[in-house]
Specification:
By secondary structure, the protein is of the alpha+beta class. It contains 16 helices and eleven strands. It is globular, with a radius of gyration of 23 Å.
């Protein structure tokens, strides 16, 4: 029976842990309920910029000292920003937990945002934005968010616009961070080989100074009005992205959706992969995936192909979706997909880092944890009828599309395949 360690510090910081005594390491992360979806238009990119700046110096350590100390510990340290959260995490051998906690807490509690480092980091982020412009697949995915979410904050780039990044001030960025980086708006998770009582004592020492109140306010509900967007760019491949409104993160039908997505385009034996890559030889990369947010979600299909064959690939996507909606899912195919998801999940859960991340996302976005046993029971409860109903609901809904390449595509055949 899987058991989670839980505690709340006097300042309101929630702590969740999972002991894995067979490991020699421990992974821990500080999670903030703050991402690009929580930004005002004029703040777009601030969450990601703050993530960068926390590594650029504290009251006790310079940026170089932070890097050298982490290297000395022989561990890994990084961070990421998404639409709905920011995470700072470390992984070290268990004997270095105290030092890792000291370093991680210093980054989150005592950043100084040195002006010279801020100006340099503007250049780094502008290069990151430019790199996205030179990565057609990323460009198409960003444009797809705009096609699906429009002016809603979920439709904005995590990195922010280049002009906005150039205009960022130290005062504005530091104020943005200090208003939101509060213990009540955070969760600390850990997984691996640790002693709970000792760890709780160390956490109390490291994070006790963190103070202040913050009441998270969710972003507005999404009202979908999908559209098709085209970005002309001279490329060797046309990037094709389709998306359909789907399920939010906490919906129990997500288990059926996982199985449905996997057999559509989530594996090498999936319908899209077999039809477009293996049979027709028209694409190297073709896949589908669900993106679930706290309040909404989308199902995305992607393919990269020659401009000469792009229209054919788009039409084949439509044919496969129609075949799935009208022809249904054979029971054997459904069960094979379920077993593939089960195996992939169990293998991923052998990682302390993966378990730490699962704890963070669950506690921060849903306010609850799902044990391995509960996950597998949910997967077992998924059924063919529910998946078929989801298939009709999702793929017969209005779709959004993002095309990046030399020429736009004709969506009439796709619309005919799905809507008659």
């Amino acid at each position: 029976m899987q058991v989670f360690d839980r505690a709340t510090l006097p300042n309101g910081l929630a702590i969740v842990g999972e002991r894995m005594p067979f490991l020699r390491s421990v992974s821990l992360g500080v999670w903030l309920r703050n991402g690009s979806a929580d930004e005002k238009p004029e703040e777009n990119g601030y969450s990601h910029f703050v993530e960068h700046m926390l590594f650029k110096g504290t009251e006790r350590r310079s940026a170089r000292q932070i890097a050298e100390e982490m290297d000395f510990l022989g561990g890994q340290m990084n961070a990421f920003t998404s639409k709905e959260l920011t995470c700072f995490y470390v992984k070290v051998v268990s004997t270095r937990l105290k030092e890792a906690l000291g370093l991680l807490s210093d980054l989150v509690l005592n950043p100084t945002f040195p002006q010279d480092e801020l100006e340099k980091e503007k250049g780094v982020i502008l290069e990151e934005i430019a790199m996205g412009e030179d990565t057609p697949e990323d460009l198409a995915q960003d444009q797809l968010a705009l096609a699906m979410f429009g002016g809603h904050s979920l439709g904005r780039s995590i990195l922010g616009p280049a002009d906005g990044i150039r205009a960022v001030s130290r005062r504005g960025l530091l104020g943005f961070m200090k208003a939101r980086y509060k213990p009540q708006n955070a969760v600390l998770t850990l997984a691996g080989n640790y002693d709970w009582d000792e760890t709780l004592r160390l956490l109390g020492e490291s994070f006790a100074p963190w103070a202040g109140e913050y009441q998270y306010r969710d972003y507005p509900a999404v009202e979908f009005a999908p559209r098709t967007l085209f970005r002309q760019k001279e490329l060797e491949q046309t990037q094709i992205c389709l998306a359909f409104p789907s399920l939010p993160l906490g919906d129990e039908a997500n288990f059926s959706l996982l199985i449905l997505n996997n057999l559509l385009g989530g594996s090498m034996s999936s319908r899209l992969f077999q039809r477009i890559r293996e049979q027709a030889g028209l694409a190297y990369s073709v896949y589908s995936y669900p993106s679930s947010h706290a309040r909404t979600g989308i199902e995305t299909l992607y393919a990269g192909t020659s401009p000469k064959t792009a229209q054919r690939v788009l039409n084949l996507m439509g044919e496969e979706l129609r075949r799935l909606v009208e022809g249904g899912i054979p029971a054997e195919e459904f069960e094979k997909s379920r077993e593939q998801i089960r195996g992939g999940y169990l293998l991923s859960m052998e990682s302390g880092s993966a378990r730490m991340q699962a704890l963070g996302r669950g506690q921060l976005l849903l306010g609850r944890l799902r044990s391995e046993e509960e996950y597998l029971r949910g997967l077992d409860a998924a059924n063919l009828e529910e998946a078929a109903a989801l298939c009709r609901k999702i793929f017969l809904s209005p779709f959004g599309a993002s095309i990046v390449g030399p020429e736009d595509l004709d969506f009439s055949a796709l619309s005919e395949a799905l809507h008659g």
